[in-house]
Amino acid sequence: MSKINAFLEEWTPYLWEALIETFQMVSISLIISVLIGLPLGVLLVLTRPGKSLDNKYLLGFLNVIINIIRSVPFIILLFFILPFTKFIVGTTIGVQGVIVPLVVFTAPYIARLMENSLLEVDRGVLEAYEAMGIKTKDIIWNVMVREAKPSIILGLTIATIGLIGATAMAGLVGAGGLGDLAYRFGHLRYEPSVMYVTVAILIILVQGLQSIGNFAAAKLKKD
Amino acid sequence: MIKINHFSKTYKTKNGQIDALKDVSLEVQKGEIFGVIGYSGAGKSTLIRCVNLLEKPDSGTVSIDGTDITSLSAAGLLQARRKIGMIFQGFNLLKTATVYDNIAIPLKLTGVPKSDIKERVDRYLAIVGLTDKQDAFPAQLSGGQKQRVAIARALSHEPDVLLSDEATSALDPDTTDSILDLLLKINKEFGITILLITHEMHVIQRICDGVAVMENGEIVEQGETIEVFTAPKHGTTKKFVNSIFNHQLSDDVIGSLSETGKIISLKFTGHSSEEPALAVVAKKFDVYPNILSGNITQLKSEPFGSLLVHFKGEESETQKAINFLENQGIQTEEVMKYEQDKRIS
Fold this sequence. Notes:
The complex is a heterodimer of chains A (223) and B (345).
Chain A: H1 2-46, H2 56-71, H3 74-80, H4 82-89, H5 94-119, H6 123-131, H7 136-167, H8 178-188, H9 192-220
Helix pairs in contact in A: 1-5, 1-7, 1-8, 2-5, 4-5, 5-7, 6-7, 7-9, 8-9
Chain B: E1 2-13, E2 16-28, E3 33-38, H1 44-51, E4 59-64, E5 67-68, H2 74-81, E6 84-88, H3 99-109, H4 114-127, H5 143-155, E7 161-165, H6 173-190, E8 193-198, H7 201-207, E9 210-215, E10 218-224, H8 225-230, H9 235-244, H10 251-258, E11 261-269, H11 277-284, E12 287-299, E13 302-313, H12 315-327, E14 331-334, H13 340-343
Parallel strand pairs in B: 3-8, 3-9, 6-7, 7-8
Antiparallel strand pairs in B: 1-2, 1-4, 4-5, 9-10, 11-13, 11-14, 12-13
Helix pairs in contact in B: 3-4, 3-5, 4-5, 5-6
């Protein structure tokens, strides 16, 4: 008992700080990634042959770019785009410095997940709204995105969990976070209990997220 | 009201070209229910989808109430479509929205003032008889109820024209009838012109004033329902007419009866079905009519009957009897062995 107390006393501030950093990185980059990924997903669907913005060149271009970015593992991407990161936010270290690579990594992934969700929407419903004389932009938000929402939520859950995994590498550029704590103290300084605790926290985090995602999707789904 | 002029449309597929529409022209009068019937692949679905330009015809024009839809700008088309209601085989409702919202959302998106929306939704839900289901989700409704919601959604825009793309094809016979009655009611009460496509003779029979029969992208026959179906000229039209009357006679029976006389199929409409023509024939000529099978049904409001009669007697007397029946306005056709088309007539 006293051992546990001693451990908590020593490590709670570190754990807490790491947790906050992880939350910061995940939430900021998730929001920016959704803002980029969702419209990109819509564009991927609408530029398909026969759809309202039918454009095979734009579609081909988007597909190639997304596939290229998705081929690079995050740890490599992190260093590969250092100049770009520097250009955008003026620094390559800390939470700020890691947001850019996290967004570059996650936005195309979200675009793909959104594309998938939007393609599941019944063509007939879109057609019915077209036949009622409703503008394409209104159909996108009020029919496509609305009907795809349960599936979009599940997709975002998957993306968020992937994002948590990616933030573990953020420590390499000094952004901290739970992954960094486990690596630096648990592995490099050989404090296995720190590693166990961080891993346990990560498991709880991911489990909780998935459960919330599933619950929200089921709640929205009406069939 | 709806005037289609020389529609043509060709699809290119891997296996070559498909002519979905070949120079199709059609006119639907104001206040009429007009049906296009054909087997699947006849091009009727392409035809109706070209009316509100969900598909673009390669050539030809369509005008509704004098407005040429095919020449409208994008903005003009949006406005025109708001006055053309459409219902579908698959209902096409929002799964994630309640019955109420399924009607209210399109109203909001087409700029109906907020204060009018509730009133309109309530009114049209009452007309289709679903007021008590307004908070239900589509998944909780039966097929017929879903189609009623779709009809209410179409009516709530107060259209001049309603297009029905196989609206009853996914429904069971009883539900089909109740939806057809509803279409009849809105046609009468609101004077909405209805253009529908179907492969079910029953739909045409029950509600259509006018009909066009389609095959291979062409209209092979069109006119008033009664006229087209009481004097069918094209083979496909005949098949559809015969499908109403389910006479089943085996080749053996036809064979043995043919030895002693002729088997004649008689078709009659309206008042001609009230005259005892067969009794007169038996008295007037030296023939013995023997009814093998018979059926009387309705074409919208007209009675329409078919009898399969064996005339036993001399060839010349039988011919006289047939001529007499023809003069009475009854259609006659001899039934022969091994002819699939005629055997069931």
